[in-house]
Structures are given as C-alpha cells and as structure tokens.
Design goal:
By secondary structure, the protein is of the alpha/beta class. It folds into 2 domains: 77 residues, no CATH class; 329 residues, Aldolase class I (TIM Barrel, Alpha-Beta Barrel). The chain contains 19 helices and 11 strands. The strands form 3 sheets. It has a 4-stranded mixed β-sheet with strand order 9-1-10-11, covered by helices on one side. Strands 5-6-7-8 form a 4-stranded parallel β-sheet. A 3-stranded parallel β-sheet has the order 2-3-4, with helices on one face. Helix 4 crosses helix 13. It is globular, with a radius of gyration of 21 Å. The protein starts with a helix and ends with a helix. It binds iron/sulfur cluster (SF4). The site of iron/sulfur cluster has 12 residues, from loops.
C-alpha cells in the first residue's frame, strides 16, 4: 500500500508543470539506471519496444506504483508528440439513453435491471429523444453519446429513425452511438449480418461507436456475472467491421467484477491485437463497477484508487497502438481523474449532461460538469485543457498552466482515495 507521503511526492514530481520536466526525466532515469525491478520494462518503453504479457503482469504485481506511473507518463508524452506532452482532451457532450429495458440480466447492471434496483422501465419515443437532445444542444454540446438496453420494441427501424431525426434537427452534432452489444442484438433481431446493421445505421447518421459492452473478455468471469451477450470474438469482430466501414470506435474494460490481473492483461492484449488488424480504435476507457442495486458485492473486491490508477497506467503501456487513454471522471471522480493524468491518461471525457448508467448503480459524482469546471480541473493539475470533437480534431487549446499545484491540493487529491 502506498503511503500518503510517497504518493503525494510522486504526484508532485510527475505533475507536468513548467520548468519541472527535468525532474520527471530524472525520475525515469533513476528507474532506467538503477537496478530497479522495472528497469527493463522502462527501457523497452523508452526504446518503443512492445511490452509482453509477462511485462503487463509484472507491472500489475509491482508495489512501486510511483515507478509504474512514471513509465506510463513517459509513454503518454512520447505518444502525444512534441508540444503536446501536457495536453488533456475533453469534449462538450451529452448522454442519451432511450431505453433501460433489456432482455439481458448481467448481474453487475443496475441500469437495466429494474427487479433488483427498483428502477422502472422506460422507452422513449423518437420525439422524446429529440426533446432531450434539444436540451443539450441549447447548452452547446457537439456530441451525443447514445446507448441503451436491448429492447425488442426498439428495433433497427427505431434506431434508424432516431439517428435520422437527430441528424436532421441537429446536423452539427456528432452521433456516437450503439455499442457492439446493441449491434449484435439488432442484427440477430432482424436476421441480418453485423455489417448490414452497421451500414444501415451509418447511413442513418451514426458517426462513431462507443466502447461499452466489452466488460471483461474472460469467459469464466462472464459466466459468474451472467453475461450472455457478445463474447470477445463477436465484440472484436463488430468493431473490426466498423473500422472497415470507416468509422472510429472506442474500447473499454470493466473492473471490480471478480476478474484477476491475468484477465485484465489478456483483455488488453486482445484489444491490442484487434487494433493491429483494423486500426480504428481511438481511445481506451478503463471502467469501474458500481454495486448499488446489484447482488454481487459479497463476491467481488472493489478496486482501490491505486488499482484504478494502475489500470490507467498499464493500459497506456500495453496499448501502444491506442492514441488516447481516458480518465472517465464520472466513475473515477474528479480528484482521481486528475491524478490519472500523471499515470498515462490524456483525456477526461466530456461535460456529460445527465449520466444515468453509472448513477443508477450508486455513483455519487455530479451528473454533469460545466466546460469551465473541466478546464479548471485539467489546468489546476498542471496540464493544458484541449477541447476536441469526437474524433479528436482540436477545437480549442487552453492556457498553459503557470502555477504549481500546492501541497495542500495534492494532499486533497490523495485524500480522495
Ligand atoms: S449491461 Fe447491457 S446487456 Fe447487460 S443488462 Fe445492462 S443494459 Fe442489458
């Protein structure tokens, strides 16, 4: 377990603030030069040599989280390129969840499991979807992130109608929608191929796909958690088809559902292999399970803040072919998300109007953050806030922060654990 003083000190050293990058380099040089147990891995990262499964397991097993973070921080800077080492991206977006009715009963899901959580089922009409979207558009959102349950009442015609109507009313808004799980369900419901389902939705306005529904690819964990949907080969195949059809997608991994570190490393390596083949993933998002409204808490170990930061760091190091790693503030909370910037994350997700899925399971984070708040969280950590669109076109580069985070601020960050 890392002591407060050590993490405080490491966060201070790794925070990328003007005039202190030499200290960051010194930290890495110490790992490289001394007989540090991770020096060979650090050397591979500096030389841009691909890490192995064994390397991933050693990173997870290391009790030197400061070193793991330092190596991931170097990989992040290397990937960002000159002049962008301190950039942290965010976007101005909203979430829409047109239905929470679902034919599946994944045990970790409170959102679409009314029997356990006490939620009531709902299904929005196309007009209601437009009404909700309109609220976000008035606030200036540039992206709609839309996912929902697997509901036979919402067939592919419904989603074509939703996407077309959104595009007609709000042509400037990017529609990032439909997980691989929903694509699989719609294709099976209609008796059509995954490719045909995707082609129809793209032609209706689908701009890109989120990364949800991957959960953990390991079959034994899925069986324990009653995950019957979209096994790994299907999830990866659907993303591969989407990439072939010319749209970008994201990828996720859900932790805290009784998985082992081996399961996590293998999950990341399957994503890396798929990215080698199809190349269309733009961002990886480590996710944490929330348990309220589920009955799994006695069977699982809740990830600690250090576990979550390690997921960020190890994914940055193993996923050498992914440009972006996200610190999803909705799940991590503001303070751990800020720390994650020093562990390899370079994206904070978006402003998010009305997040429902994680909050149905007990997340206490706000339902949305103002753009100004996100910019403050990034810049007060010593990073440069960069507003992006969904596919990482840069819309606005914020002020380069001039101040060093105070010791009090860093203590507060560590206190978030
Ligand atoms: S996780 Fe997805 S597929 Fe599983 S019950 Fe929830 S909404 Fe349905």
């Amino acid at each position: 377990m890392l002591g407060l003083a050590a993490l405080n000190s490491s966060a201070e050293r790794r925070t990328a603030i003007p005039g202190r990058s030499a200290t960051v380099s010194e930290n890495l040089n110490n790992i490289l030069a001394n007989s540090h147990p991770l020096s060979d891995i650090a050397r591979k990262v500096v030389d841009q040599t691909r890490l192995t499964r064994e390397d991933g397991l050693r990173l997870y097993a290391s009790d030197d989280i400061e070193a793991v973070g330092t190596i991931a921080d170097h990989a992040r800077r290397q990937k960002a390129g000159t002049g962008k080492e301190r950039w942290v991206y965010y976007n101005h977006n909203m979430h829409l969840n047109p239905t929470n009715f679902c034919v599946e009963t994944c045990r970790f899901c409170s959102y679409a499991n009314p029997g356990l959580s006490g939620n009531t089922s709902y299904t929005w009409t196309v007009d209601r979807v437009l009404e909700e979207a309109g609220k976000g558009v008035k606030l200036g959102i540039k992206e709609i992130h839309m996912v929902g349950g697997l509901n036979p009442a919402c067939d592919i015609n419904y989603y074509e109608d939703v996407l077309r109507s959104l595009k007609r009313e709000f042509p400037h808004v990017h529609l990032k929608a439909m997980t691989a799980v929903e694509i699989e369900y719609l294709a099976n419901l209609e008796g059509i191929s995954y490719q045909e389902a995707l082609e129809r939705l793209i032609s209706a306005g689908l701009g890109s796909m989120p990364g949800g529904g991957a959960e953990i690819f390991d079959e034994a964990v899925r069986e324990r958690m009653a995950v019957k949907k979209t096994p790994a080969p299907v999830w990866l195949e659907i993303h591969g088809i989407a990439h072939k059809l010319g749209i970008h997608t994201n990828a996720t991994m859900l932790t805290g559902i009784s998985e082992t570190v081996e399961n996590k490393v293998d999950h990341l390596l399957l994503l890396r292999d798929q990215q080698d083949k199809s190349g269309g993933f733009q961002c990886f998002i480590p996710l944490k399970c929330y348990y309220e409204g589920t009955n799994i808490q006695s069977e699982v170990t809740e990830p600690t803040a250090e576990d979550l930061l390690k997921d960020v760091a190890v994914s940055r190091l193993l996923l050498d072919n992914f440009d972006h790693i996200k610190a999803y503030w909705i799940q991590l909370g503001e303070k751990i998300a800020q720390m994650a910037f020093s562990f390899g994350a370079d994206d904070m997700d978006g402003t998010i109007l009305e997040e429902k899925i994680t909050h149905a399971a007990g997340a206490k984070t706000p339902l949305q953050l103002a753009k100004e708040r996100i910019e403050f969280l990034i810049s007060s950590s010593g990073y440069v806030p960069v507003e992006r669109d969904t596919v990482y076109n840069v819309l606005n580069v914020g002020e380069c922060p001039r101040t060093t985070p105070s010791t009090e601020h860093l203590k507060e960050l560590v206190g978030a654990r």
